[in-house]
Amino acid sequence: MARLSQKEMTRLQGAMAIASFAAGVAIACACLFIVPPPGEISNSAISIVSELLVLAGAILGVKTSYDAKFVRIDAELRKKADKPESE
After folding, report:
1. CA distance 85 to 78
2. Coil, helix or strand at residue 4
3. Most buried residue, 41, 44, 57, 61, by CB count within 10 Å?
4. Rounded Cα gap, residues 22 and 42, in angstroms
5. pTM, rounded to two decimals
């Protein structure tokens, strides 16, 4: 399996964060407000699944955001370090 670059990994994590957050919100809205359950499904079981998906999306989103900021800061520091000082 080919290793992903930092930029590709950040994009993948961002897409996963958005997808899991959207899935959690969709499950919560559909199961709790729109579609009545065909059998007996506890509302707490539905809500915990949606909450865990939203949590996963939030955690991945925060990690992706910090990764992108760290890459930008690293690039700025490297550019300043490579730039010769004029005296």
Report:
1. 14
2. coil
3. 57
4. 21
5. 0.54
DSSP code of residue 39: S
> Helix, strand, coil: what percent of the chain each, to 5?
80, 0, 20
- Residue 36 token pair: 């009545």
- Tell me the two tokens of residue 13: 């994590």
Count Cβ atoms within 10 A of the Cβ of residue 3 and give its class: 0-12 exposed, 13-18 middle, 19 or more buried.
Answer: exposed
Structure tokens at 60: 């991945």
Task: Output Rg (C-alpha) for the chain, integer angstroms.
Answer: 20
- Encoded tokens for 74: 């690293």
- The rounded distance, in Å, linking the Cα atoms of 81 and 4 is 27
Element (H, E) at 30: none
Residue in the structure block whose two tokens are 């992108």: 68
Nearest in space to 50 (alpha carbons), one of 38, 62, 42: 42
